[in-house]
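Protein entry
_____________
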Amino acid sequence: MAVTEAERRAMSRALELAARGPRGVNPQVGAVILSPAGDIIAEGWHRGAGTPHAEVDALSSLANDAARDATAIVTLEPCNHTGRTGPCALALIEAGVSRVVYALDDPGAVSGGGAERLRDAGVEVEAGEQADAARALVADWLSAQQAGRPHVTVKWAQSIDGRAAAADGTSQWITGSEARADVHRRRAAADAIVVGTGTVLADDPSLTARDGDTLHAHQPIPVVIGARETPADAAVRRHPHEPLFYGTRDLHAVLADLHAHGIQRVFVEGGPTLASAFIAADLADRILAYIAPVLLGGERVALTDIGVPTIDAAHHLTVDEWVPLGADLLAIAHPTALQEGTH
């Protein structure tokens, strides 16, 4: 049976509901229950880890048997496992739902398989409605699921000759106000902002996302990596969120723990040493290089050793976009596999 116009409208509504939920360990999911006549009788969305999933949230507002022969519209395939909550596929079956339309397959080896369970119980299932929109909504969650770690953006600002600071270490400000405002907007879109202890000790950054003197509504969790102690009066300790401190150089372990905290987007802004470490470890999914039309010379380069002993070992990038920002230029790029014969 083809997807009806009422079901398409309900999926659009379910996507709106899903966006209300927080990013975290679980995906943002929305659900709408339609009566046999095609009218909306219940809505729900997932409000965070440990709370009812979207389908159960919607069903909970209905009286017993009110969902019998109804259609459930869900942005993600109903789950098929028991975690903090029970399987949504089973909840829909027990509620008497006769048809399920969902947008995106659940990629989880444990949580997936809900569609098959529904079909085995005699429920009609239709997959793929507005899948692209659903994928865009949970793109970071999908990336984290596939990689087993958060998506990592590595950012730096540099002079046109590749320097991050002048000979005396001063670096404020290489770029202009438009570039700095762009950085703060991107910070606000991240779940965590990561620096090393060297940056904390040298610059005492607040690690907030600001619009002028006003804090953005969403603030990334500050993360400090390194063995040196962060001073008790450091600005980062006055951040709206409690900072996370990692006294290790094991970036894989740090990212694994951040993933366990439900962090999906990491913004690395910790200076040449930390940026280089993430790139050398092949942990940079996106590069943001803010390039200012100034010359500094000297030894304070934007990147240090990234494990390239010879030109054949160079890290090749695909530039996704060049963004003019006042007098500065932002290069947005991602790593690309080295193709045979390139140099």
